[in-house]
């Protein structure tokens, strides 16, 4: 049963609109605190000659940081330098936007070794309940 206090109701969230409104309010607060309004989406995609998208890397730049949110390539395209090229493309664009560092979180069963190979260093880890697996936080200086 939802908790009530002073007329407010607390319930488990399931409303995407509420999340969007809260994110916008938080972003406005961040601008008020920092005086900086520089958030922008960023991405690079791998397409074939027909225009089909096979994978890519997406994130955002904000406050001098490149946040990598999603990076995907199908297994049959791994090991062919596409991942390295995508990462380099997005890092170069982030540097042009004034970013000094990149941050990514990944899982131990995804590609932490790929990021390490490209100069990222681990700065945190949270173990999953799945034995032997963890969420890994990595960062890299871009300049």
Explain this structure.
By secondary structure, the chain is of the alpha+beta class. The chain has one domain (40-141): Aminopeptidase (3-Layer(aba) Sandwich), CATH 3.40.630.30. It contains 3 helices and 8 strands, in the order ββαβββαβαββ. The protein is globular and about 60 Å long. The mean pLDDT is 93.
Task: List its salient traits.
143 residues; 28% helix; Aminopeptidase; alpha+beta; two-stranded antiparallel ribbon
Provide a short characterization of the protein structure:
The protein is an alpha+beta fold and 143 residues long. Helices cover 28% and strands 38% of the residues.
Give the H and E element order: EEHEEEHEHEE
Strand arrangement, major sheet: 3-4-5-6-8-7
CATH topology: Aminopeptidase
Amino-to-carboxy terminus distance: 52 Å
CATH class: Alpha Beta
State the helical fraction.
Answer: 25-40%
Residue windows where pLDDT falls under 50 for at least 5 positions: none
Output the structural class. Answer: alpha+beta
| Overall spatial form | globular
Second-tier CATH architecture: 3-Layer(aba) Sandwich
CATH superfamily: Gcn5-related N-acetyltransferase (GNAT)
